[in-house]
Write a structure and sequence with these properties.
This protein has 12 helices and 12 strands. With 367 residues, the chain is α/β, with parallel strands linked by helices. The protein folds into 2 domains: 236 residues, Aspartate Aminotransferase, domain 2 (3-Layer(aba) Sandwich), CATH 3.40.640; 121 residues, Alpha-Beta Complex (Aspartate Aminotransferase, domain 1). It has a 7-stranded mixed β-sheet, sandwiched between helices. Helix 3 packs parallel to helix 9 and helix 9 packs across helix 12. The two termini are 23 Å apart. The mean pLDDT is 97. It binds pyridoxal-5'-phosphate (PLP). Pyridoxal-5'-phosphate binds next to helix 4 and helix 5.
């Protein structure tokens, strides 16, 4: 089987360092929010060009704690894309605010700034653009809209660690940014993890307090917080993967170039559009086809894994029926949910494996 991602191969490539890092933590007797987490926070803030990084339990919590630290809640609206993983909107709902969706661009699949502007009301407090599949959103336009209307911008960068936009790292482009270290993310650990990056010192302080039960002084609480911390073991693993991430992202880009070169003339396939302002790091390689189901079946028969990201837009999720959206509200996102599919993409995919996938997509689909 050629898998969408291959975490075993990823581990093998860093096996000695990871096992050493894990052993070090185990022997140290310090397991939660210790020196490894501090080192990870420092290294990530430096790498991304921000002053603060706060590690938390997962990417969803990163979003929830950031929204809460900004005081966003009941009565507020936050604009995001209907074409993303559920957590982008779930976090908004979790703090009591209302997610307001805006349709996406048909080529990049990212939220369309013009659509954002149409959805702004007096209740709007923030925009959460998602760098979907690893491709940076058009942040200049979004920042301009946010400035004009006095809104916060919180990047959902869970799929885009290391990607750049106009030579700046994703994670340094808005007021704050949220990352996930779920194992299959391009920078992942062997469990759950997440981090918030920002240059807002006050915000970072509020999030640090929220992540440990609303306390700055142990056993004295003036706020209801969370238990949302990163373990030292995960920090140790992430510190190693962090040294490889640029190389891994570069490999993803090279593989994506090869897919694009060899598949772009296939009439029943539409390649994703790469924006000129950003470097797409291809957390996933998704493309469009009217014959998605048939192609996926052909690939599966040949032991090649595929995936659908995402089969149902968020405005059409059952849980959001109370928001009164209907089919047809976001035609581009809805069309993508019917046509996009992902083929294997990870830094350890070999050219030989990629050639098999390409050959199959070219021939089999032609029947
Ligand atoms: C994975 C992901 C999240 C949530 O991260 P978890 O660590 O799984 O909680 C949020 N937003 C997007 C776009 C994601 O891909």
């Amino acid at each position: 089987m050629i898998n969408l991602v291959d975490l075993k191969r990823q581990f093998q490539s860093v096996e000695n360092e990871v096992l050493h890092g894990i052993a070090e933590v185990i022997k140290s007797g310090q397991y939660i929010l210790g020196p490894k987490v501090r080192e990870l926070e420092e290294k990530i803030s430096t790498k991304l060009g921000v002053t603060e990084a706060v590690a938390v339990a997962n990417g969803t919590d990163a979003l929830v704690l950031t929204l809460e630290a900004y005081g966003i809640g009941v009565g507020d609206e936050v604009i995001t894309t209907p074409f993303t993983f559920f957590a982008s909107a779930e976090a908004i709902s979790r703090v009591g605010a209302v997610p307001v969706f805006a349709d996406v661009d048909p080529g990049t699949y990212n939220i369309d700034p013009a659509e954002i502007e149409r959805r702004i009301t007096t209740a709007t407090k923030a925009i959460i653009p998602v760098h979907l599949f690893g491709q940076p959103v058009d942040m200049d336009k979004i920042t301009e809209i946010a400035k004009k209307h006095g809104l916060l911008v919180i990047e959902d960068a869970c799929q885009a660690f290391g990607a750049t936009y106009k030579n700046k790292r994703v994670g340094s482009l808005g007021d704050a940014a949220c990352f996930s270290f779920f194992p299959t993310k391009n920078l992942g650990t062997m469990g759950d993890g997440g981090i918030i990056t920002t240059s807002d010192v006050e915000l970072a302080g509020k999030i640090r307090k929220l992540r440990t039960h609303g306390t700055t002084k142990k056993y004295y609480h003036d706020q209801i917080g969370y238990n949302s911390r990163l373990d030292e073991l995960h920090a140790a693993i992430l510190l190693i993967n962090l040294t490889k991430i640029d190389e891994w992202n570069q490999k993803r880009r090279e593989l994506a170039d090869r897919y694009r070169q060899h598949l772009r003339d296939v009439p029943y396939l539409t390649m994703p559009v790469e924006s000129e302002d950003g470097s797409h790091i291809y957390h996933l390689f998704c493309m469009e086809s009217d014959r998605r189901e048939e192609l996926m079946q052909d690939l599966l028969n040949a032991q090649i894994q595929t995936g659908v990201y995402y089969p149902r837009c968020l405005h059409l999720q059952e849980v959001y029926s109370l928001l009164d959206y209907k089919k047809g509200d976001f035609p581009i996102a809805e069309s993508l949910s019917e046509k996009l599919f992902a083929i294997p993409m990870h830094p350890f995919l070999t050219e030989n494996e990629q050639d098999q996938i390409i050959a199959l997509l070219r021939q089999k689909g032609g029947s």
